[in-house]
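ok so I'm stuck.
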Amino acid sequence: MDIKLISDMKTKYIGKKIQYYKEIDSTHTYAKNKYNELQNGEVIITDKQTSGIGTKGRNWYTGAGKNIAMTIMIKPKFTISTIPKLTVKIAQSIKKSIYELYNYDLKIKEPNDLILNNKKISGILTEVHTLGKNIKYLIISIGFNVNEEEFCKETEMIATSLKKEFSKEFSREVIIKKILEDLEEVIEKL
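replied:
not stuck anymore, here's the structure
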């Protein structure tokens, strides 16, 4: 992963600080445990998660150096009432990013999955921590299958990747950069 390719984004705050790990248990868990130390818009990226988290406590597999596993820490100035359907808005943003990059039309399975050719290609996990009506912090975790070719038996019939569908390599850095730029637009409108 070449973080320099990502760090020249056209954003105000998302991705201005990036922590990159070759391997970590979970970017989501890391952000949750370190929320006091993380800046607004700070991004945690890894090449491999050993205990990736999906929704409903499920595992999220991240093949080493093949996919996107990242978490964004948001410390917003808005209240809980301003973020209805946030996860769906993030899914719409990712759908837009992939369409603008490659002209591929992903489908959204509400609230948090993106589907390509009837198989899951991406998942979103959002977690909000509040203090009264105010949001203390918001954690947005995104898993996206980019260049994965082998899936475990439990997921091979229900998961896919860009490489598996289109038989070519894709730049994770280009996809991350575009997703983060588009995501900031969504957050700015809340």
